[in-house]
Amino acid sequence: MKKNQRFKIYLISVLVIILVLVVAVYLNRSYSYIYQKIDGAALKSPDRIRTYLISNNMPVNDKTAKISLVYSALGDSLSSGVGVETYEESFPYLLSKYLAGNDYQVTLKNRSVPGAKSEDLLVGLLNGAISDNPDVVTLFIGVNDVHGDVSKEEFANNYEQILKRLTTETKARVYAINLPLIGANTLLLPPHNYLLDLRTKEFNEIIKNLASQYQVKYIDLYTTTRSLFKEPGDHYAADLFHPSALGYKIWTDLIYADFNK
After folding, report:
1. To which CATH superfamily is domain 45-259 assigned?
2. Do the strands 51-55 and 104-112 form a parallel or antiparallel pair, or are they unpaired?
């Protein structure tokens, strides 16, 4: 082999190594950037109590409501209201007001913990929700599984165990809410935006199939909000990941609209 050819091969090899290192550094830094921005915003759950009595057009302690409902909200930070100032701006509270209408008194049981994964819900939150003897349950879990590299098999097993217990140990109408795409495109840089979107769709397919298997209502937030939540805007809180009051209101409207379809 001629000297020039050896030099070219050497040069190409060096360039390839440099390119690989640059890509590796970019992938690492851009991934870390997501959680640095989220943590840097220092959002907290609004002050919450375990039980809320919600009634429209009557005092909350009025016992003359025609019908009373117990609603248990199972989930993570998205059910805890991270991103808003008060829990009254969260989607479970807003949904409770919709459910109350003019005739109902709704007892909202807060069964959500920021950062919870499906396993945490199964082990630490589910027993409380079952003991609530609920009439309505929203199951909204999985975002932390997607971001925490939980395998699809583990998530599916956890989710199935949750649905099995809810459908056999309660009389509740269970609503399985799928995972919206959250994280503006200024936060989730390529290729992480594509990879997280792919995992979200894969996990949603699991939720959809299990909801059908256990005959519970499947509510699709992903399809209806994907385009909006890819972009930054007033629907996001300061971290560009958790919804703002407007974002939760958008979700609530879509969830409630799907309740009786």
Report:
1. SGNH hydrolase (3.40.50.1110)
2. antiparallel
Return the residue matching tokens 């248990």. 72
- Integer Cα distance of 213 and 163 in angstroms: 10
Q: Determine how many CB atoms are found less than 10 A away from the CB of residue 168.
A: 9
Q: What one-character-per-residue DSSP string does 202-237 give?
A: HHHHHHHHHHHHTT-EEE-HHHHHHHHHHS-STTB-
Integer CA distances (angstroms), 46 to 41, 77, 89, 134, 199, in order = 14, 10, 9, 23, 29
Q: Where are the domains of the chain?
A: 1-42, 45-259
Confidence (pTM): 0.90
Model confidence pLDDT, tens digit, residues 40-64: 999 988 988 889 999 886 554 444 5
SS3 56: coil
The strand pairing partners of 139, in sequence order, are 74, 176
Q: Does the N-terminal peptide bond of residue 114 adopt cis geometry, omega within 30 degrees of 0? A: no
Alpha carbon distance 77, 168 (integer Å): 26
Cβ neighbours around 250 below 10 Å, total: 20
Q: Of 244, 116, 132, give the one whose Cα is nearest residue 184.
A: 244
Find the angle CA(168)-CA(171)-CA(176) to the nearest 5 degrees.
75
Contact at 8 Å (CB) between 33 and 87? no
Tokens 């098999």 belong to 153
Count the residues in the chain.
261
Contact by Cβ (8 Å): 90, 247: no
More confident residue, 12 or 37: 37
